[in-house]
Design a protein that fits this description.
Order of helices and strands: EHEEHEHEHEHEHEHH
Strand content: 15-25%
């Protein structure tokens, strides 16, 4: 089984339409896949509506859980709690925030304002996340992302250490933009081992925590 809660389609900057993305995920034995295109105040409603339409059609034919999501990306940090709530109100099942990765000019404060939102589910590639944000993330039941994405993955070790110190659940995502970005569970296991996960931590990240996240979305 494989769970991935962070992927993109042609609705933002990905290369695949939803049907092809989901089909390729099925071939890699995915149980659930979240479509989380880049959004801000200008397009969040349209993105979520399109993804809902795709999900409703695909679930008639294929045995995979397609999750309607969005990744709030490079938006003003103070607007994150408000925008996350708006996304949930119009049908998003899962809200990611594009965290302060060290390879993009994400505005300082993004991790903090994501961490205080009760409507954010995953803080994606959070970079050099600090202890204050970790405490908030723990309090608000937000998941941290360990990523296979080139560049973003440079701080996986730091993120895992913070998650371990504060007992924060982590999931292994891909941030897929192109067909080659999707991974199977064996490669996901290598990503986890590469950031220092122990056997139990790896089992939690690959199976237990994704199932817990799915329960929250039902």
């Amino acid at each position: 089984m494989r769970y991935d809660f962070h992927t993109h389609t042609v609705f933002s900057d990905g290369e695949l339409i939803p049907s092809e993305l989901v089909r390729r995920a099925i071939l890699l034995n995915h149980t659930a896949l979240a479509i989380t295109d880049h959004g801000d105040a200008s397009n969040y409603k349209d993105l979520i509506e399109k993804t809902i339409l795709a999900r409703e059609e695909l679930k008639r034919y294929w045995d995979i859980r397609v999750i309607v999501g969005i990744e709030l990306t490079h938006i003003p940090p103070k607007s994150i709690p408000k925008m996350a709530r708006r996304c949930k109100d119009v049908g998003a099942e899962i809200v990611l925030v594009h965290g302060e990765t060290i390879v993009e000019p994400v505005e300082e404060g993004t991790n903090y304002y994501a961490s205080i939102s009760e409507d954010v589910d995953i803080l994606a590639h959070p970079g050099l996340i600090d202890r204050e944000c970790a405490e908030n993330i723990k309090e608000n039941n937000i998941f941290l992302e360990i990523t296979s994405r080139k560049g973003h993955s440079l701080t996986n070790g730091h993120v895992m250490n913070v998650a371990r110190d504060f007992n924060i659940p982590v999931v292994i995502n891909t941030d897929t933009h192109s067909p080659s970005d999707l991974i199977d569970v064996n490669f996901a296991r290598k990503v986890g081992l590469g950031c220092g996960m122990g056997r139990k931590e790896l089992e939690n990240a690959l199976y237990y925590y994704p199932k817990e996240l799915l329960k929250r979305l039902i």
